[in-house]
Amino acid sequence: MNRPYITCYMLNSLDGKIIGEYFNTERGREYIAKYEQFHDRMDAKACMFGRVTFMDWPWQLAPGNKPELPENVPHIDRTDYVADVEADKYCVAIDQSGKLAWGANVMLRGSSDIYTNRVGDHIISVLTEKVSDAYLQYLRNMKVSYIFGGKETLDFKLVVEKLYALFGIDHLLLEGGGHLNGTFIREGLVDEYTVLLVATVDGGSPKEPAKTSFEASANQGAMVPVNFTVKKVEKIDDTGLLMTFTKNK
């Protein structure tokens, strides 16, 4: 296989939500920490998130999420830029239009101890060729690696093949959001789904639609259902389950 083995890994409430008020409860905070512990146990070479997820981590971005773009930048060829091929682990950001302003070229420590396991992971930005020369030079100045996944839209099969070929990523954890996960499963790129299920019903608000592990974007039609097989179920105390499913061949 010329791409990584891809595990979609998510945290869900009993009613299937990947985000909600349950995050702010004692049990919810406990399970966010457990999520990171199991993340480490899977020992993947890289994780992947969409742009919106990164925006929920302000400590990872420059103030105001505004990149300091250089001026009068000459044309830069749309070829992949590998700043660190020897990193222990990578964090891949889907940012097709080039909007994220990084605080560093690696994952940073936040205000809590929850995400410290990711500190130092080298960042790879996934772009389309429509990004500006100034943004590409900005990433080069920051020594943030980047790859191109298409001219105006992303071809995720190409993206994961490049991650394998350029960085040696053989196991990738796909960690949301739901639209990114949904696109991957539509393209046949999810080999395994692991969900940490916390025994809490969030309920939510009628004013805000529920966000789930796999979502359809506005420009996508109905999807043919994808069958999985139960691989393993692990009971976590009396408050949750860690469940792993493999996609049927």
Record keyword descriptors for this entry.
Dihydrofolate Reductase, subunit A; 249 residues; 5 helices; nine-stranded mixed sheet
Kindly describe this structure.
The chain is an alpha/beta fold and 249 residues long. The chain folds into two domains: 1-45 and 179-249, 3-Layer(aba) Sandwich (Dihydrofolate Reductase, subunit A), CATH 3.40.430.10; 46-66 and 74-169, no CATH class. 21% of the residues lie in helices and 22% in strands. It has helices at residues 26-42, 51-55, 133-142, 156-167, 178-186; strands spanning 5-12, 46-50, 90-94, 122-127, 145-148, 171-174, 192-198, 228-236, 240-247. It has a nine-stranded mixed β-sheet with strand order 5-4-3-2-6-1-7-9-8, with helices on both faces. The mean pLDDT is 94.
In short:
With 249 residues, the chain is α/β, with parallel strands linked by helices. Helix content is 21%, strand content 22%. The protein is globular.
Question: Which helices and strands, and how do they pair?
Answer:
Layout: E1 5-12, H1 26-42, E2 46-50, H2 51-55, E3 90-94, E4 122-127, H3 133-142, E5 145-148, H4 156-167, E6 171-174, H5 178-186, E7 192-198, E8 228-236, E9 240-247
Parallel strand pairs: 1-6, 1-7, 2-3, 2-6, 3-4, 4-5
Antiparallel strand pairs: 7-9, 8-9
